[in-house]
Design the sequence.
């Protein structure tokens, strides 16, 4: 595909042209979004969906800024990951290359179109984009602008295609061999539906059930601050905690300090019997340990030991991000080595699990799959690699016969 | 899982103990294999299967050597891939960690049990292994030895489990969440069946349809040598070529030189009309361009241009390994940039697509998936990574409010 052969600067310029074209079309995009909002109101769409759908002039300006920032990110393509002489005159290289074509499926949020489209072009990939029906006018206006921008660049406008019908969206899931990666942006239900209905790799996570474990040896004031931040800073985020595990010996003092703070922040606590005995007013059922509340609700359990906390996380966690508060360095290291999650934290909030906070510049999504890419994924999630081997008549039979031998000498990257 | 917490030396020692135990049980293993072979003869198993099933004393000794070599491979676990200060006292690390549990399904070949089991333990993974029914006695004897070896090491023998029934094997495919990667070793049909019946990632490839394109500007003698090696050195291998594409201007001279050589090597050629006009005796049907012969058969097509060759490879290839023979450096670079296969080669045989030849020391398999790991996969295909974040009371709200700012300063790896 021609897009994959373009130089860094050409892809940078194309993304910059996309930003300029969005700016030029700002009035039209905001007007289209206004029409979507009116239709949503007439259809009685839930307020949360309407909020995500809304794209006013200032939100649009921020999104265009985001596109400009993507143009500035270091090129993920053409990075030499391996460079090795196999024998005199036979040199192996491993180079990062674009994946090919991305399938992007998102609900409501028209700003996601701009973000993902710019990440796709920056990394040399084409994209098939499918937005929610409720955002159809906004998405069409945005895509028109993005493609107008590409028309003035080295990238063909056809590199970005908008899918509009549910049939096209279902069809997209069947395009294995043509589409290389599906990126869903939306509810857990959307992500799970997609995972169940495609053989194409899916970058994303269905659940974010994050834990904070407060150890026996702990700086209580710090632990309370971290717990409150991890729950309340943005409760709808996947990296907010859903369950608090308290070591038996720390639980009384911790809860005495934390209960008023949680109450002041409007957090509803649901505890096991032991934590209820220490003042937690709500009761947790088994379903609470598996719940992603995405809201100001927090399950609380008192555990006997670090091992019991690890067991709880292994059983109920979703391998997203889990944290410990402890002043004991050896306990911290055991936790870091034992929790098999994309992010394992000591003495800080789970809310740091984010591509921007990790310094990736932009985030494609957060993956809770075991295989890489895992956790917050930057542009590197949109590339793969190829092995390039340059020889001068080298044949395998010469090595089988012993006529020649491999040198396997690493060369400078 | 405890295995994931062991040190490098403990895992090395465990693999060495596996090798020693195999040696001690050699007579019993060879006898068990003999019984499998007799049963296979009684059942009238095809000769090719019987050949793969056979494990005599010298083949076993070679396999044990292979296990010892795996013990010597550099540790793939605990490699720091990223080290970054996010802010004073808040430090992010990305460390390689074992995947967890591998599901390994292979036909016949009992030597594959030893190879994969040692790679699994070396990289800190457990493995559920399912061999073919025809190899059941051999596999049981090998597993007994491997577990006896582990019993004298820091790794629990339960890290390796043998599945024996077809029901268990089908059940394995459903263990998403418990099994992290499926590694099939066997026929294309086996691999495709597994890919179609599991949501667990599969490391492997169903097809190896490799091409050699002979350019207009070419060293003819070299091109003939490479074509013959790539087809005949080991025709059953997935990295053997199945289709030869000849530039119109090079085809007459190339075929004049190559036809006698191919004939002498017993290669049956199937050509399009143009190559038949130049002396290729067999006729290629459309199905031939999609065929993985795995035999001394080669499809031949005359193309008008590099572009037509690229189009053919894009249409019929399996993204495994494709090569060009050319003396024109710019043509070579266009080919390297345009062919989207795991391996893209210039002036050498496709038979180099192999983990040992790449210098990986051992090979888990060859993947034709687009996403990494791609191509020949060494031990690095059996690890993933975790982000570890160590702080001292850091909370996200301080960065949202502007009270603190990220430094994003890379530290030495």
Sequence:
């Amino acid at each position: 595909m021609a897009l994959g052969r373009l130089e860094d600067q050409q892809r940078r310029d194309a993304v910059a042209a996309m930003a300029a074209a969005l700016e030029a079309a700002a009035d039209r995009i905001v007007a289209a979004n206004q029409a979507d909002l009116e239709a949503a109101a007439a259809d009685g769409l839930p307020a949360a969906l309407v909020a995500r759908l809304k794209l006013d002039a200032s939100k649009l300006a921020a999104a265009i800024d985001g596109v400009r920032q993507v143009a500035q990110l270091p090129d993920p393509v053409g990075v030499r990951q391996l460079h090795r002489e196999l024998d005199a005159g036979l040199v192996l290289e491993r180079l990062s290359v674009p994946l090919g074509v991305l399938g992007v499926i998102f609900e409501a949020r028209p700003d996601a179109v701009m973000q993902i489209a710019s990440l796709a072009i920056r990394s040399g990939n084409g994209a098939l984009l499918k937005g929610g029906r409720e955002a159809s006018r906004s998405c069409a206006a945005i895509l028109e602008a993005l493609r107008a921008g590409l028309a003035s660049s080295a990238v063909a406008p056809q590199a970005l295609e908008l899918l509009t019908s549910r049939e096209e969206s279902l069809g997209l899931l069947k395009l294995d061999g043509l589409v290389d990666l599906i990126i869903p942006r939306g509810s857990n239900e959307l992500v799970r539906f997609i995972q169940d209905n495609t053989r194409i790799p899916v970058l994303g996570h269905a659940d974010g059930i994050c834990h904070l474990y407060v150890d026996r040896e702990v700086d209580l004031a710090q632990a309370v601050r971290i717990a409150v931040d991890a729950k309340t800073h943005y409760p709808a985020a996947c990296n907010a905690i859903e369950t608090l595990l308290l070591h038996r010996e720390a639980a009384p003092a911790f809860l005495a300090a934390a209960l008023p703070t949680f109450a002041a922040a409007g957090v509803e606590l649901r505890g096991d019997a032991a934590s209820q005995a220490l003042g937690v007013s709500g009761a947790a059922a088994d379903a609470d340990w598996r719940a992603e509340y995405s809201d100001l609700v927090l399950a609380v359990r008192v555990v006997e030991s670090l091992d019991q906390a690890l067991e709880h996380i292994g059983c109920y966690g979703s391998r997203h991000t889990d944290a410990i508060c402890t002043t004991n360095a050896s306990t911290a290291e055991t936790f870091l080595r034992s929790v098999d999650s994309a992010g394992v934290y000591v003495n800080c909030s789970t809310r740091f699990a984010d591509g921007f906070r990790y310094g990736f510049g932009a985030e494609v999504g957060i993956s809770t799959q075991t295989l890489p890419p895992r956790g917050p994924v930057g542009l590197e999630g949109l590339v793969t690699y190829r092995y390039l081997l340059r020889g001068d008549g080298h044949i395998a039979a010469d090595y089988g016969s012993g006529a020649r031998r491999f040198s396997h000498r690493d060369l400078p990257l």
Remarks:
- Chain B has two domains: 2-203+377-385, 210-352.
- The radius of gyration of chain B is 25 Å.
- Chain B touches chain A through 69 residues (CB under 8 Å).
